[in-house]
Amino acid sequence: MSIIIVSGAAGFLGSHLVRSLIDQGELVVGIDNLSSGLISNLSDIFTHPNFRFIQTDVSDNDSIKTLYQEDVKEIYHLASQASPKFYQSNPFETIQVNTQGTYNLLNLALNKKAKFLFTSTSEAYGDPEVHPQSEDYRGNVNTWGPRACYDEAKRLGEVICYEFYERYGVKVKVARIFNTYSAGLRNDDGRVISNFITQAIKGNDITVYGDGSQTRSFCYVDDNIRALILMMKHEEANGEIINIGNPTEYSVLEVARIIKEKTESESKIVYCPLPKDDPKVRKPDISKAQRILGWAPVVTLEEGLTHTIKNYQSLLLGAHSK
Q1: Regarding the domain with residue range 3-180+219-244, which homologous superfamily does it belong to in the CATH classification?
Q2: Which of 7, 77, 9, 71 is nearest to 43 (CA)?
Q3: How far is Cα 50 from Cα 229, in angstroms, rounded to an integer?
């Protein structure tokens, strides 16, 4: 039986994707070097007969050569550190996995005539001067700053995908993923929702960067995973870049206040200097996803936060009581 490869399988999105594919009866090989992914994310499926895990780095082509012996039908390339906290600490690894790692897995896809999906990012738009952002917007990205190792590596990864699609006819799809969250997001991840919820539950100050007027669009993980699987299935998505995100826009300060209220926290909201190159606005135009995939998110921020907060409370308060 043919297998599906998921790189970054122990990460936030990767582990959710693996679980969804197994639930659909697929045989999945998960790959992760565990630089930021957690093996605990896979604990409930680690011994599942339809799952096999390989701890390795896809940037090293020799380490994935055994996969050339497999009957591979699809490759989801999710491997990459995605939080500024992690990728700014490991810039060269981040560049490598999104460039050399992408090239290595695309060569595997070419050899096996497999479909290939690359998870790019809304960071490809940088600090956008067009709002909302559609896929034809070329972005406003700084190549000389702390976020560039991630932003530009993803953009170059897209270029490599383009060349394999145009030159060799590999069935490549590129998903530009906007802010995604759920209960599975590491509470030490350093991103907005994980930060705010963790701080609120612990009673620490909720740290808002800048004045909190900068906006983000938050997509619950179930909606995101559904979109990725639809992209892989739809032939019309071959050779396309498609935004995946929730177009409902919130200011960061609004999100902090919602979380403070939902957690019934006594935490104070405090303001810190805005990090360099932090985008002022972020909102996807998802008309292409609606047209090609018939996809739109269905989980509201209120619903998603309720699930996420409940899980974090169980995790953090449970650990505190031990």
Answers
A1: NAD(P)-binding Rossmann-like Domain (3.40.50.720)
A2: 9
A3: 17
**Three-state DSSP class for 3?**
strand
Query: pLDDT digits over 101-117, tens only?
Result: 999 999 999 999 999 99
Report the SS3 class of residue 55: strand
Distance CA(288)–CA(280), nearest Å, equals 23
Give the pTM. 0.94
Two structure tokens written together for 280: 């002022």
8 Å CB contact between 285 and 134: yes
Pairing of strands 115-121, 219-220: unpaired
Dihedral angle over CA of 179, 185, 188, 193, nearest 10 = 40
**Residue 148 near residue 142 (C-beta atoms within 8 A):** yes
Residue 84 carries which side chain, given as an amino acid letter? P
Could you give the CA distance from residue 77 to residue 84 in angstroms, rounded to a whole number? 19
- What is the CATH T-level fold of the domain 182-216+248-279+300-321, as seen in this structure? UDP-galactose 4-epimerase; domain 1 (3.90.25)
**Residue 190 region, left (φ>0) first, then alpha (ψ -120 to 50), else beta?**
left
- Contact (Cβ atoms closer than 8 angstroms) between residue 148 and residue 157: no
Amino acid residing at 159: V
- Give the tens place of pLDDT for each residue, 191-243: 889 899 999 999 999 999 999 999 999 999 999 999 999 999 999 999 999 99
Yes or no: say if 286 and 247 are a contact pair by the CB < 8 Å rule.
yes
With both helix axes pointing from N to C terminus, report the angle between 221-233 and 12-23 in degrees, rounded to the nearest 10: 60
Instruction: Tell me the catalytic residues.
Output: 150
